[in-house]
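Reading a protein record of the kind used here takes only a little practice. Each token is a code from a learned vocabulary of local backbone shapes. With that in mind, consider the following protein and its fold in token form:
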Amino acid sequence: MTSSFPASTVLGYPRIGPDRELKRALEAYWEGRADRRDLESTARSLREDTWRRLAGLGLDGLPSNTFSYYDQVLDTAVLLGAVPERYRQADDLATYFAMARGADGLAPLRMTKWFDTNYHYIVPEIGPETVFSLDAAKPLAEVREARALGLETRPVVVGPVTFLLLAQASPDSPDGFAPLDRLDDVVEVYARLLADLAAEGVGWVQLDEPALVADRTPAELAAAGTAYRRLGRLEHRPALLVASYFGDLGDALPVLAGTPVEAVALDLVRGTGHGIEALAGKTVVAGVVSGRDVWRTDTDRALATLLAVRERAGRVAVGTSCSLLHVPYDVERETGLDPSLRERLAFAEQKVAEVAGLTRLLAAASGPHLPGSHLPGESVVQGRPPAYGRRTGQGRAPYPVRAAAQAEHLKLPLLPVTTIGSFPQTGALRGARAALAAGEIGEAAYESVVRTEIERVIALQERLGLDVLVHGEPERNDMVQYFAEHLDGFAVTRHGWVQSYGSRCTRPPILHGDVGRSEPITVRWARFAQSLTSKPVKGMLTGPVTIVAWSFVRDDLPLREVVLQVADAVREEVADLEEAGIRVIQVDEPALRELVPLRRAEQDTYLEWAVAAYRWATSGASERTQIHTHLCYSDADQILAAIDALDADVTSIESARSRGRVLGVVGGFSRGLGPGVYDIHSPRVPGVDEVEGLLTEALRAVPAERLWVNPDCGLKTRSYEQVEAALANVAEAAARLRARHA
């Protein structure tokens, strides 16, 4: 084992490519336009470019095995041999993508959010019958690739405790079984992995354990201690860095301190470093450069933190608070941003440079302690007091009164069928948007394309027999960016792409100032769509929590104040939609669960103000106007009481991929509910019988008069061929059940 950790490192780096090269390569491979060699060539180039660039920026410790074709948790499942038998195919890559996307009538594994981020991971399926076996080909191959470039790397793997805590029990598991029950078997596979890496000459391995920053039971903490004592006592292994991020380790810190691991990474942006003295004798990788936002690091404050760590724990390396997977590549490419804003920003490339610069400053600082050095939890920062005053969302009539008024006004059938909002973004739409941005066509020509697409979408939905229609959102590039482009206080980037899952990427706006709305944003398109049909068309809005959660947000105001500024703008838009004659308005909050703090002690306060913001945004609507909301892929069952408190008339929730898990806890839900019956994140088309079966299960938990029929999420990532076939089957299944219940 090597004894000294490099002086500087990052815990991970973006992998999609500066121009989304991985996205294009994946989609070409999935569509049959490229073969495996093409995909692997692109992947190899992206990895090599990353390692060369990190070394060129002066980073001492380079991570490897952070590249993924889809998701690092799925990669770990393959590494451990935890592949359910139904997914196994002759080709290993086909097996991998079957787990992620489904194949040949086979539904994929469940997908949900990675802690409190907008990144999604594939949920492993572990049972008593799971046979674990090591497949170390990927981490070993990347070590060799980098070595061929003259570079040594540190393989990164999701740690055994986090892997099992994030997994779900396989369908045939007995009651009371938890994946963590298989810890001993999994740790044995990790031990073999470490032996293989040691034989390869690898000096350090990083095992990521972010699950340890959440509240953990004594048994779970004991499991962490057991795992790392076992791995730490191996005779032949690399040195171990256990990386935590997204908060404080809390009670897990002394547990790790009591094991033989050589280094622990701490998030000192979101965490306080409390109890760091227990790590004396180990290397502390001090995460003082944020991997979650795009603001430049306060050098003086970061250096003060590093000096305090050095004083209290001894050996210190400079690092990022978490992987840089969550930020774009390079702010220097954003030449369209206001220069005064751009100079305040740091994307992944700038953050690596900050890590290298702080490393030099730390090395030059004389003595272990300088005046003013402190850990984050010891600094006192006086923020401005909340300026939002009292807003209340208690203005609407009780739900039973509204439901009766809406039934009379809308005259919808039993089991009404709708969609979540977006329809496929065609090549023609994207081309027109790009041509408008490039000045090749005028606004009138672009809007003609948009109107034609809305006409197509309305006609399609009427032909398929849907009951509440949408306009398809052809004018929108993204459900958050579109609003950011029309609100004061936001800036949008041109190249600021961030991976959400697989090939799906988003460009989070930058919320840098006070938010305001100068004119209606969605009204004219909703009014146009409604003019094409006698059926109700939903006005489509993104909720205040989600707009803020999926943006890079200013850090000089309390988050709740920023959310309430956005809620004011949404409230104004709701009022204008109503005035335009829109009878159904959907205000989506898919990020409500995502922002829930990882520690229980902070959750009630967050949910209180988040729910209040939503109610303020929607409570001005009349009792006849039906308010919908939507949540997807974020364990909504864990906060169902808060979702009910939003007081939306109808809530649609992801359910198809998670096999209706939410249905087990909806007994107390008292409003309209649409548990999704079509997983739009997979290319497979569900059959009529499959959808009917899902709806039949839903009817056991939700009365027919409150059950809605809808996909899991928006349809923008699917093709029209897939969408038409799937929605036809969904409508047919609903019609069958409607006739039966009539």
Observations:
- The two ends are 72 Å apart (CA to CA).
- The chain has a mean pLDDT of 93.
